[in-house]
Fold these 4 entries.
Entry 1:
Amino acid sequence: MMPARSELQRAFLVAGSTCPVVRLEPGSGMPLGRAVIAIGAFDGFHIGHQTLIAKTIADARERGAGAFVVTFDPDPDCVVGPGPAPRLLCLDDRLRALAASGVDGVVVVPFTPELARLDHAAFFEQVLLPSLDVCAVHVGSDFRMGAGGASDVAALRSWGDAHGIEVFGHTLVLADGTVVSATRIRSLLAEGDVAGAAYELGRPHLVRGTVVSGRGKGTGMGFPTANISVDAAMQMPADGVYAGLALLDDIVWPAAVNVGLPPTFASLPGSAHLEANLIGLSDNVRGHDIALAFCRFIRPSRVFATNDELVSTVLANIDEIRSDFGGSGVAIG
């Protein structure tokens, strides 16, 4: 059966209510009031992030202050890391998830090489405090900031004590005895374990793209596919076939999703690295925006000895996914 409408909305980050998102440009000095804040990049907005935000909101309510998330654009590792890690969420989705988390506001700080050179004291005094009357800060126990990551929770707490600001470094959330982190989730996806990644994300892994022209073979075989162009910065699951869900124009369709260049058609022009059969949809959707949520690994990619073997295998995969989610779309708008 197709998941409930509320689950589909959560999977595709469709929220009923959100808070303001404010970009804190240098020198803006926008007064945002008394605040309890959580700081982080929050890539993926996984269950560890969600727990941290919930604690931030609870503390803010007890103090009668606003609850704010402070995050960065671009992700700091794009500026100071040896090379940016693949993203679990695009910026729009990351901000959408944070804005729907129950906080009173999301503050986006432009992350530049100049900002990266500031220590924690300069970051607060020059960047945050002109806009936020911070009374408490919530971060993970492994939090580090400033040049070379020299400012840890202890340094931040020492500075906070001198300025009347409480600093909380929270124990990290575990899953099966291992710390939940964006790095671990990327590793699970790279292994094809989309179910494990979904557990730690609190929803299926999501990518967005645009339907483009493909090789045109699927329709004649009985399973037309949407060939999807996705930002190369996004983390993709391992090559293979997955049961998924596809959001197209406010309707969610069951989907058989192939990740990676199909071995049988690798040499053909127009072969895509991501394609999906939207079960129950026959319309031409070329040029449309689409979002895919990965639910379950079905099988690895392989070369088929004959065209008949390929067709029978793919149709069996589609039937399996149809039995999971049904054979038609569901509106969630």
Entry 2:
Amino acid sequence: MTGPAREATAHLFTQYARVWFPSHSALYAEWAHGVAADADLVARIATLPPNKQQPNLVFAVARFLGCPDAGFATLAAFLRERWDDVAAELAVRMTQTNEPARCATLLPVFEQIQSDSGKPLALIELGPSAGLCLLPDRFAYRYDGGDVLGAENLAAGAPLLECATTGNPPLPTRLPEIASRTGVDLNPLDGADPETARWLKCLVWPGQTERLDRLSAGLDVLTSLPRDDPGGPVTLVRGDLLAHVETLVNAVPAEHTAVVYHSAVTSYLPPGLRHAFLELVATLDCRWIANEGFFMSDATDGEIAVPRERSGMFVMTLDGVPQAYTHQHGVQLHWEADGAWPEDGQSI
């Protein structure tokens, strides 16, 4: 393994330790700092394909295989002792965090789209994991500590998704009317399978008990969705998003509005595939929501400069136009569509 490859791996873990993990999981920040400084572990991880080196994926696999949520010394010993098992499990696993709380940041944009068209929404999510974010009408929401939207869902056991906002977001006063729920994923997950549910829970970062509770409640909603639900069942298609998204959009009837959306998905695509997707989605008869750590626009090469105080946030766009900064786990929405986007700062 070359020196530059090891340096790139160490840099990746350092970046996660400094940008993505702090304030979200103290243990993961400790683990990432520890790995970055451990030449032996860096060398092992650097032998993996780039898409298997993601710190959150490596850590989730270790926990799935039995590593306790303890200090870095515990993780280091586990990885050295069980490295062959970890590498084998990484080969068949993907980062497929299913965070239902992202629906709280998507909901205002769904409201905009439905108000514009006056039609029910045909949801097409790219990288849906088990499909929890295909259920925005089945959850309950509270923005800035106000009234609960979807109280009937809350009474039925759905999670309450709390979201703090700034700016002037078009907060919804109704749940979206959903016509259909379809997702495309290289590895769609069955949320009703106990081992799959355990894997999804291992993807929740240590210490995030509220996220774990939301996930558990969201899985209950998914598995109890009535067969005759007005929005239809969650349908997950196995395959590459580029191979399926055009067909799915074209299949949406005229009386519905096709909405293609994704969160924390395209940053995992190689640049060539990302650009191919951008070119394709711009030609489709759909509305397009991107909620990503990269600015998704056909006018850029995949990144946007963001102010330092927004480091660690996603940028949400509608049809390629920036709307808001969003917290990666859906608990904050900083609306910027009506203001000027800063040009200085650092890129994410």
Entry 3:
Amino acid sequence: MTITYEPKPEHKFTFGLWTVGSIGRDPFGSPVRDAKTPAELVYLLGEVGAYGVNFHDNDLIPIDATPAEAEAIKKAFRKALSDTGLVVPMATTNLFGDPIFKDGAFTSNDPKVRAYAIQKTLNAIDLGVEFGAKTYVFWGGREGTESDSTKNPLDAIKWNREAMNFFCEYALDKKYDLKFALEAKPNEPRGDIYNATTGHMLAFINTLDHPEMVGVNPEMAHEHMAGLNFMHSVAQAWDAGKLFHIDLNDQYPGRYDQDLRFGSRDIKAAFYLVKFLEDVKYAGSRHFDAHAYRTEDYEGVKDFARGCMRTYLMLKEKAAQFNTDKAIQSILADINADDNSMTAFFGKYSAAKAEAIKAHGFDRTGISKRGLQYERLDQLTIDLLLGNR
């Protein structure tokens, strides 16, 4: 039987309007695809089998739209959702595109800019909730500097904290069923962006008035830009109970933000990520924050979207195979074998336990001579991924 890897609603695959709606503009070239309306993009996603669609406020409603224009857009968008069965799990605010945000939004030196950013976000939160979003993401694309002569980082941290506390109180006051997720990025479009990694965000969350309402939205490309192991960042977020959302794509380390199709560059990193998410039974959306190549028309955009989902499902199958492969599991069992001789030394501290472990004699030479079979294990993983197991 041929396996088709068709996406199903239970897979919770989502795309942003800005992803499949990208018209291929870049700093060196004009658009290569005509713009589609939000409703048209919903129908496109329905055609490829996606579960949901996410949006920035101005992906859905242009920043200068009149109230009548906004209502017409929302009506068409709502009908498209109804026709396709797609849902809106997440929404966010564009706080980076308009010239007013050239020096940041919540961290701008100008209090008028900071106040406008709060106003814009409050309205965008209302819009997201109107369409059923349960998660609200904050990406501070302009929250940074090119020169540290220009901004006091302690002021920036304070202003950012005040804004997040304000939004938490707003959601509580409105009785919105909403969680906030913070998305880190090391640089671009700013020279340096505050809270550059998922670890930075986790530390920042602990300083908020309502940390229970705020988690993270790690993005694969953003962590790879910084040369980090994305799966490790995701694991830390999961361990902290803060993995509220996730952005999947691909990226060459040390380059500009490429937003490549998921699994198209580093299949091994993608595999370990999928395996982690499936092993811990992550129940949230698998959101693909990526773009089709600039070479593509809209048929190519559909190929891109289908490819993201197909690769995830193939890697999910490989993860299940890894977990049942006898040779792989035999090595893992050997690596993790425990004769319980050290059990008394672990766990909660006691003075007696500390003295006992200090007095114990370890065969340092004998222990160090043990081969761990990591080379063979890694090659078995490669064999599995390449279809030779």
Entry 4:
Amino acid sequence: MDLCKEIHDYVQTHQNEILATWRDIVDIPSKVNQKEDLENCCNKLMTLFEGIGFKVEKHEVSETNGPLLFGTLGADRPGKPILFSGHYDTVPLPGDHPFRIDEQGHARGLGCHDMKGGIAITYHICRMLNDLGWAERPVRIMFLGDEEKGHSGSRAGEIMAKLAPGALCDFNMESATLEPSITVGRRGDVMTKMTIHGVGAHSGSDFLRGRSAVSEAAHKIPLIEALTDIDKGTTVIVTKIEGGTMLNSVPPICTMMIDGRTTLMSERHRIMAAMEEIAASSFIDGCTAEVSFEEYMPPFEPNDDNRKLAAFVSDIAEELGFAAREAVRVGGGSDASHVAMAGVPAICSVGVRGQFNHTENEYALVDSLFEQTEVLANAVVRIDEFAARIGE
């Protein structure tokens, strides 16, 4: 029997099991910063993948963040491995949001779209190919427990840089848009905290001795926001300001939070250097400032190999009778950036389709769970065709 038809038949006859796995993973609490819950979720995923033959290991990334889960199926198989990546942590919305199917037939629940559906797809692709006897290449998984906080205070980026190299390609199983698409580029972040120190004084009786940190901040804001370069996909904006102590006191301190987004790594370096320079200069004698970079998700820069991988998957989708996938760039970050920086061709947003991530209205299309499983399973068994496209 043709392997393509076997995959199709397998997905059709195992829909209830695939859906049940999705439900089970969503219903494991894993809100970012909840260390105990994240450990528990990671351990359950370990058990799940070990049950289908993966050799799995946990990597601790910090005392507060969820571990990195890494596993290999068929380490002794020939050829470069195929990597599936993503994250199992979710945003910390208040209350419980269990998995359910609503009256419109949409899946709901915290993380159902972003991105536990992608983990369920990965598991069932690997389980299915085991059952069908496919063993042509090694398969790896790499799921993070602190992606939603940009790996702040974490060694995750450093660990990914060691584990990702050597893979033939990476399918980052992040949430997909409602319209069929594949992400080949993402903006990175330059989240900055600038703290300005002035000289506190009574604003009535000791005005001249005071040096206002808030006034110094006001001088710096135009310089900071002038770093925006729309043509290069770079935006910089001051998003939060806190300053002063009392109504009748010259403000001795002011803190600004700055959201920077870049499409190119070179722009990230430019922004960081400029922030340091702005902090080092002062407009009001006696005021000083320092910066710290709070989070780091590097840009996922489009390249020819990423586009070829996206085109390969889109071609397969069309051959199977599904819609073609448009190659797109999106604004938010993901760990596809870290994998791509390790020299691995990568595509992102190939998990379940839906919308409203990070809100109580998050939902995903149930049919996309089965469609993406079928499309990516076919991509795996035909991955030599992609290897030929990039000269491997």
